[in-house]
Specification:
The chain is an alpha+beta fold and 399 residues long. It folds into 2 domains: 187 residues, Rossmann fold, CATH 3.40.50; 101 residues, no CATH class. It contains 13 helices and 22 strands. Strand 1, helix 2 and strand 2 form a beta-alpha-beta unit. Helix 2 packs parallel to helix 13 and helix 4 runs antiparallel to helix 5. The two termini are 35 Å apart. Bound molecules: flavin-adenine dinucleotide.
Length: 399
């Protein structure tokens, strides 16, 4: 297949997650011949989904729920398959009770004496009039002592233990951007996300990726590491499979690898994922239950409750154990560790890679950013438009 395309492709995309697949599709729609190479044996990136021995569809790299406020992104993904409305609900084991997460008024009433809970609720509604969600930081930094104390309670019991497990460091060392993402709901809305559009693909994520990549201008090959074929030459040119390549090169993997980790390795957090098939109808009261303060794992996902499959007598669960990423065989880099030092290190790679003008970084790994799925799709759509626009300007200048 490689030979058939040799010298003939206009664009090469490394990686078949959302960043790579959407980039490939947009370039293909604009008439470019695109070669997508994916180093794993399957497409779909971390959204890859397959049926296990019990016939239950599992998310092989951890549970993924689509949610967005961007109508443009929601419309875009709807072209590639049917999506069912799915409102994600999470519980957390706090002080021996299972309470809604994000922390809301139901959680408050389960953990505080009712009279005290109601008094705080009234104060919260007055202090944040018109808002339905605030961040834990906003509560902690509030001038009212009772609100600030509630913020501290949520921080200590819902956030601190979970975050320390997740990031493997004391919570105070965690970047403020992470803490500022933790919401508290001012009401009884127990949906995990507050976004306008929340959905799951009716036939699974893998089918969506097959449809995105099903375009006559796209050839996709799995089990192929781009690093085995690519040479970045010191003069700013590149060779691919032994031939000069001047087309568009999109890279969605780890950027340090492109330059042989010359400035040092970018750190990531990884996960050990433990799947278990149980011979019972149900395991837990929500699709995800968080364990912020007990156990070594952070959460348990029960997949039937995500996919909506009817499978009596059997259910599959997943326990997630966070750990450091060490680039060993079989380990995955899941989360970039966002802090000023790591952002600076990433910036050094980004700057050095600008030397190759036809190379573009896109996605969670390449840009070293915690993107949700909607964020990465939006980024890919914008980058594709930018690249095509740039080409048009160059062609006009040549004429
Ligand atoms: C545990 C977990 C749960 C998450 N849950 C949600 C959620 O519920 N909702 C949500 O919106 N977001 C969620 N996310 C975020 C979501 O996973 C990302 O937004 C998404 O993966 C970004 O897509 P991507 O294409 O940038 O990266 P990936 O999906 O990681 O795709 C990159 C692909 O590039 C391939 N690749 C890398 N290097 C090379 C190479 N040299 N050659 C060829 N191929 C290469 C990789 O194998 C991979 O398949 C979650 C993330 C994690 C880690």
């Amino acid at each position: 297949m490689m030979k058939q395309w040799k010298g003939k492709m206009d664009a090469i995309v490394a990686g078949a997650g959302f960043a790579g697949a959407v980039m490939a599709r947009e370039l293909a729609e604009a008439g470019k011949r695109v070669l997508v190479l994916e180093k794993r044996e399957h497409i779909g990136g971390n959204m890859y989904e397959e049926a296990d021995e019990a016939g239950i569809r599992v998310h092989v790299y951890g549970p993924h729920i689509f949610h967005t406020n961007e109508e443009r992104v929601f419309r875009y993904i709807q072209q590639f398959g049917q999506w069912n409305v799915y409102e994600h609900r999470v519980k957390g084991k706090i002080k021996g009770k299972e309470v809604p997460i994000p922390f809301n008024f139901t959680s408050l009433e389960a953990l505080f004496p009712l009279e005290q809970a109601e008094k705080i609720e009234t104060k919260l509604l007055a202090a944040f009039e018109g808002k339905t969600r605030v961040t834990v930081l906003e509560l902690m930094e509030h001038g009212d002592q009772e609100i600030a104390e509630l913020g501290q309670f949520v921080f200590d019991h819902v956030f601190k233990g979970y975050t320390a497990k997740q990031w493997g460091m004391p919570v105070l060392q965690v970047d403020r951007s992470v803490i500022s993402r933790v919401p508290v709901v001012l009401g009884r809305d127990d949906r995990y996300f507050g976004d306008r559009f929340q959905a799951m693909p009716a036939e699974g994520y893998t089918k969506i990726f097959e449809n995105i990549l099903a375009h006559p201008n796209i050839v996709c090959q799995t089990g192929m590491d781009v690093m085995d074929l690519l040479t970045l030459q010191p003069d700013g040119t590149m060779r691919f499979d032994g031939v000069d390549f001047k087309g568009i090169f999109i890279y969605t993997g780890m950027p340090d690898v492109l330059l042989q980790n010359c400035f040092g390795c970018l750190p990531y957090r990884s996960l050990r994922l433990e799947f278990e098939i149980l011979q019972q109808d149900d395991f837990q009261s929500a699709s995800v239950v968080n364990y912020p303060n007990s156990e070594e794992f952070t959460r348990i996902t029960e997949f039937k409750k995500l996919t909506g499959q009817e499978k009596p007598g059997v259910t599959t669960i997943l326990r997630e154990y966070p750990m450091a990423f060490t680039a060993k065989e079989g380990q995955e880099a899941y989360y970039p560790i966002e802090n000023p030092q790591n952002r600076e290190l990433h910036g050094m790679y980004e700057k050095a890679l600008r030397q190759w003008e036809n190379l573009y970084l896109c996605g969670r790994l390449a840009e070293y950013r915690y993107y949700n799925m909607d964020g990465v799709i939006l980024r890919a759509l914008d980058l594709a438009r930018e690249i095509l626009q740039k080409e048009k300007v160059c062609q006009t200048a040549k004429v």
